[in-house]
Predict the structure.
Amino acid sequence: MAAVTETIEAVQAVNDGGYKWGFETDIEMDFAPKGLNEDIVRFISAKKKEPAWLLEWRLKAYRHWLTMEVPHWAAVSHPPIDFQDAFYYAAPKQGPKSLDEVDPELLKTYAKLGIPLKEQAILAGVEGAGDSPSEGGRMPIAVDAVFDSVSVATSYKERLAKDGIVFCAISEAVQTHPELVQQYLGSVVPQGDNFYAALNSAVFTDGSFVYIPKGVKCPMELSTYFRINAKSTGQFERTLIIADEGSTVSYLEGCTAPMRDENQLHAAVVELVALDDASIKYSTVQNWYPGDAEGKGGIYNFVTKRAACRGKRSKVSWTQVETGSAITWKYPSCLLIGDDSVGEFYSVAITNNRQQADTGTKMFHIGQRTRSTIVSKGISAGHGQNTYRGLVKISPKASGARNFTQCDSLLIGDQCGAHTVPYIENRCMTAKVEHEATTSRIAEDQLFYCRSRGLSQEDAVGMIVNGFCREVLKELPMEFAVEAQKLLQISLEGSVG
Amino acid sequence: MLKIENLHATVDGKQILNGLNLTIPSGEIHAIMGPNGSGKSTLSYVLAGREGYEVTEGSVTFGDLDLLAMEPEERAVAGVFLAFQAPVELPGVGNANFLRTALNAVRRAKGEAEIDAIQFLKLARARMKVLNMPDDMLKRPVNVGFSGGEKKRNEMLQMALLTPKLALLDETDSGLDIDALKLVSDTVNALRGPDFSALVITHYQRLLNHIVPDRVHVLSAGRIVKSGGPELAQELEVSGYGAIQASAA
Ligand SMILES: Nc1ncnc2c1ncn2[C@@H]1O[C@H](COP(=O)(O)OP(=O)(O)O)[C@@H](O)[C@H]1O
Ligand SMILES: [Mg+2]
């Protein structure tokens, strides 16, 4: 039964407005037995035909995880998670080898989500004509599509390979570029870094791998699109991006999941490595199912993202728009090791209804004259709780380091909350750290002004919120900025009036 | 035609409008003058539908529409435009984006096609030239960092683009120099026609030299206490509100 039959409920849910990505794809799946133990770890590793070192690496992580406790310092609350009551591996049965072989049902799923998996026809023509894929108006985007536990397709691989760029599923990279994977995996986020990172290291299934060779400017946006589909399944993806000396890359990830009244766990680890003069721009538009208005269901998004700016003058810029998930727990961080390296964090986090977000960043200034910028915009509506948690740590050797932090909170209604928890540890006399924070409400006069010009209440809120987030949204690649603006508005539907 | 009958309104439980009657036939421009605190802005907010301005008695019809039953945005797309006494700042919201969104809301309501960004820029630039506004005011966030005069001109730009059927100008002339005053007047006069009417709230006769009103009304303590032709404004300029308030009491 390989045909897609969307359940009637799913279609209704889509038409209900609200979360428009909540449908479910009916496709034949391979599951590991429910629960978690060493055999499951071995099962996953065997499924992926992994070399012995990686299995050992996973088992070590697993054993370490057993000794750890669920973190409870974040300002979020949820019933205890039963880690034995989930599937740790779920993959469509038919594992495709190339884009042409992808199950048409999966293609349809991604098309419905607005994700172009098919390489655009124009590219063939453009490839012959020259090196600018942006001709014909729209810049093509290379996509790696991760469906539950596996990558189902990666587009533009051949085009990218021409420049020596590796863009593929991490499970594939383990086979094709084992030396790179072995060198860098866990080098930024060690296996035992935290509870969820250890869990991920034990059971990670897929995610993207990117390697940009020396001096190469990646000619197109790279993106990974994560989709949780199967019931009672956790998604544990692992992404590793390495930008070699003097290279540049812009990468975007997007994510959605069906509407279910159970909570599903998404515990990812993302590691970025930037060598001398390399620059990585990493953007996230996170739109996991947030649960319903009463707080039933939704994704627990517990993610560890960290970048090592190892090279001199290297730069990593995190931009995130977090609109989904029941709970978001996420602190994309930068280790600014190379002298004159730069870390940036631009974030918009929205919590509506019963959503909770505890998010922020950590900037570790280690090299001299390292600089970091943090701009965080938190929007709370309904009963949403939004916490900015940040750490700026400046080591004694980081002379001339600079940090600027700006945290703005916007409240819609009087049932929600915004919290700012900035930690600053400055051990260097010549470093300079600045912090600004504001909390405001959407003013009645602003709403009335917009409405008196013909904007509906919801459009007015959308416009004011987008204005509030402008500094962050302008950091997103053009293609996604428009998408993100729409998302912000949709996530706030029903938050006023 | 705008028809206000026996309008009573409260703000925060305080009675501000006390049985106000006023009719503005299509094609006419009426001026309202009156001392500070007499309820002029309150009247404009009630007509535009601001929350918190509670109508306790009376009715307002605009053409065959029951204005008081409509949401502010419904009134706006039906052709009611309020030029604010104190235009509101919208941080981060680009003026062009705001104006185009507003214009498209109005166009949709009229069953017209939406205007794209390029067409819009052309249209807006032409209007801005007339209002002597620099192009970069389209890029800046709505009213943020605008001078008083720039804010008022921005209101006039919106009015010129939205081409309302009923314009309510709340002290648009206050704080403007003579040149800007002339630009405001020209913008209003350009809209004049059989389907356009306006209520011009002002303290100064000089605006009414440029926008010559059909009728002038004096508002005091929440009701119209005297009405007349344009010459009434000149009388007030000489004798002030005192005499009228005394005789009305
Ligand atoms: N929010 C409010 N709460 C209480 N009183 C108000 C409020 N807004 C206006 N008023 C009062 O209503 C009266 C009329 O105000 P307004 O309509 O602004 O007068 P005008 O525009 O004629 O100067 C004033 O006495 C003013 O203080
Ligand atoms: Mg006033």
Q: What stands out?
A: Strands of chain B lie at 2-11, 14-24, 29-33, 53-62, 65-66, 80-83, 166-170, 197-201, 215-220, 223-228. Residues B 11-12, 14, 16, 34, 36-42 surround adenosine-5'-diphosphate (ligand 1) (CB under 6 Å).
